[in-house]
Amino acid sequence: MLRALYTAASGMTAQQMNLDNVANNLANSSTAGFRRRRLQFQDLLYQNLVMPGAAATQQTTLVAGLQIGLGTRAAASEVVQLQGDFNATGNPLDLTIQGNGFFQVTLPSGETGYTRGGAFHMDAQGNVVTAEGDPLTPAITIPPGVSSITIGSDGTVSVTQPGQQAAQQVGSIQLALFPNPGGLNSIGKNLFLATTASGDPIAGTPGGGDGLGSIQQGYLEQSNVDVVEEFIQMIMAQRSYEANSRVVQSADEMMQQLNNLAR
């Protein structure tokens, strides 16, 4: 019965973490470019009271053993890389990736961050940056006083000066692709960092035929959180938590009965 208490407690702890993950997904359901996470669970060690295949007699072995599980734990938090819906904004520096890939930005630490959030701005020097001021990689600078900014599906950035009809190319946006995007490290602010689990980034031209998606100007990709699914996960986590708490209560009642026998 003591084993049941600890086993049920592990289930309650796991479902609390599951609810924490659901809460984070729901809190970011309106965050542009957000990628929801999904918890994965695994069972813990087993206590082998009778090993499977142990000798029953000199000529026979046990077909099945006697193993008691010791609970569960959260094993991984996977980033789900499904495409979110597109929202038309009309802002020339609002960009979305139709397909696979990430925008690359240079962080203050010098590292390269990766993001699906395409809400970019211009700083005082005309550099295209994120809301936090992190510049795109490779850097793109918009000349002052331009009348229009055009970004093609291949990432080509062109501007038109007042009084001129011919467009002038000022740079090109490159995207990055990972062998395992689910292994990226989330650091907040819609940013990811590469890890050994994600593999090294493969940078290239958008829509270039190497698996990278194309860029759409004037659109923002919304969060890929499915609110209905998250509410279902929340209900399931709550019911599982209640079931494990009921096991704790039942084990406590059985122990109380044993204590009463000694009176």
Briefly say what this structure is:
With 263 residues, this protein is α+β, with helices and mostly antiparallel strands. Helices cover 23% and strands 30% of the residues.
Please, could you describe this protein's structure?
- The chain starts with a helix and ends with a helix.
- It folds into 2 domains: 2-81 and 225-261, no CATH class; 86-221, no CATH class.
- Strand 15 (185-188) and strand 16 (191-193) form a beta hairpin.
- The radius of gyration is 27 Å and the shape is elongated.
- It has 263 residues and is an alpha+beta fold.
- The protein has a 4-stranded antiparallel β-sheet with strand order 8-7-14-17, with no helix packed on it.
- The mean pLDDT is 89.
- It contains 2 helices and 19 strands.
Essential attributes:
alpha+beta, 3-stranded antiparallel beta sheet, 2 helices, single chain, 263 residues, 23% helix, 4-stranded antiparallel beta sheet, 30% strand
Net shape: elongated
Strand order of the largest sheet: 8-7-14-17
**Estimated structural class:** alpha+beta
Integer count of domains: 2
H/E element sequence: HEEEEEEEEEEEEEEEEEEEH
The share of residues in extended strands comes to 25-35%
Determine the N-to-C terminus distance: 20 Å
Sketch the major β-sheet: 4 strands, antiparallel
Helix tally equals 2
Number of strands: 19
- Gyration radius (Cα, Å) is 27 Å
How confident overall, as mean pLDDT? 89
What is the helix content? Answer: 10-25%
The low-pLDDT segments are: none
